[in-house]
## 1
Amino acid sequence: MRLPDFILENLEPMLQAWEDFARTIDTPGAALDSKALRDHADQVLRAIVTDLRSTPAVQSQAATVQEHEPSEALETAAETHAVTRLMAGFTIDQMVSEYRALRTSVLGQWVKQTNFGSPIHVEDMTRFHEAIDQALTESVASYSRAVEASRNVFLGILGHDLRTPLGASLLGADMLRRSEGMGERATKVAMQIYTSVTRASQIVGDLLDLTRCQLGPGIPIKTMEVDLSPICERIVEEVRAFHPKANVLFKVEGAVRGQFDGARMEQVFSNIVGNAVQHGDIQAPIKVALAVEEGHAVFSVHNNGDPIPEDVMPFIFNPMERFSQRAVIDHESPEGLGLGLFIASEIVASHQGTIDVTSNLEQGTAFLVKVPITQ
């Protein structure tokens, strides 16, 4: 008997084997009834039967996968199964193990036919493996997409909800540090609270920006006529105040006016200059420059110190890299979420600009940002 016919004839014992295995999985299976444990198994097996009957007899596995890539408009049973298993509490390893058990159950029962003299068609077995692998691929991809979407929504809600209490704490700390008549110790404590809450607010802001990039087309900007010179100068002064030992030099050639999102460009300046101070040699000059060249606002930061390793260079704008030059050498953890350069690159991209970096031991590390004056 050919394999697709055998599957349809023995569908119930195969579904029972799927159910029995799912019931052995820790925690989730114990709380599900028979219908939930068999979730989409019937549709998956019937889809495999259709695949076996429609696929040409001689076809490479790569061609099979390409032909049966999941459609964006129509969700397959394997994709739906993955989402329902995620909602039921199954891990991705547990879901994958279901397909392994299904493969063993179907082929095990089919091979038993040899005991009764029925021939085994090797082509059917090969194509069955391909069909199971395709269903498994669809399930894993669907599971991963659902996890990523739920994670991004969670991060967005978390960041949004944290803003209110952080804002209240920041306002209270600011009022305390500005109050007259407080002792030196109380003023110092209030200043420490204000600095810590400000840092926490920046981390939450970075988290929300990351979520926006993951869920949408990028970081949104609102452009208006802005002069970037005083914004950049203010950032440099803040960095100098926060890092008094750093030798930060600033050069600007007149006004740099254009259509920019001033608040977002402030983030770009702060993240790149802060990165240079954190990872560069603060004993050597850190050169910051801003000018207008050929219809672009050109912002550059140069620092000396340990260069960025060549194998790390392609990933410094990766939001998950959490790169720190000192961490590579000293195994230290970077401050915050390590999203500064990623957010800077996204803001520059939203302004239709470019950001480039060069780094070597002889010439140091240089970031160059070019943003068109008019959007």
Note: The beta strands are 224-227, 248-252, 257-260, 286-293, 296-303, 354-360, 364-372.
## 2
Amino acid sequence: MSNLLTSSIGRKLLMSISGLFLILFLFVHLILNSFLLLDGVFGLETGQMFNAGVHFMGTNPLIKVIEPTLALGFIVHIIYSLILTFQNRKARGTQSYASGNKTSGVEWASENMLVLGIAIFSFLAVHILNFYMKMKGFIAWEGGEVEFPFFGTMAKGENAYALVNETFKSMPIVLLYITGSVALAFHLAHGFWSSFQTIGWNNATWMPRLKFISNFVAIILGGGFAVIALAQYLFF
């Protein structure tokens, strides 16, 4: 166990596994966010579908168990990403900059994972302050209570939709979300296939497929979050 935590290979493995776990969370989060745009498709009043989704996430016992696990996943991924990045830079020293040229055959995202990670972390910090801290009651906000359909009956809960809609009426916030989403897309385009490579799934047959899937995942997640934020600003 100590080797897993201290060796370079062990750290890469933990970073990769935590990263793949966080990608699953991002897909769940994107599905929930898509509810912001889908009320009209299902003949519901604006905000009802999203409020029902937030109510489900807030009252489901399983989600209460997953939340601290998710937080641990973020912490592990960030810590080991920083450790490995600085270890690699220390190992290369000044040699990697001696020629004044970039390394050939290396993806831009691979060379800038630390910068992309910092951009995503900044975006995440703003997201937590704007939404999570308010929805959990750590920061006061006046959303009011509303009714919405919930598994065949009517339920009452906080008007989370009003909070999101109001927040996305600010162009600086929307631009921040778009910037963070683009950074996330580049991060995933490299990080997804790289995680499988670290785990050992890196043969000549599967690697091109994984890189294709990585680009698909990056476009869906990064593009999805950006489009939802922009659509809220423009049309809701």
Note: The longest helix spans residues 61-92.
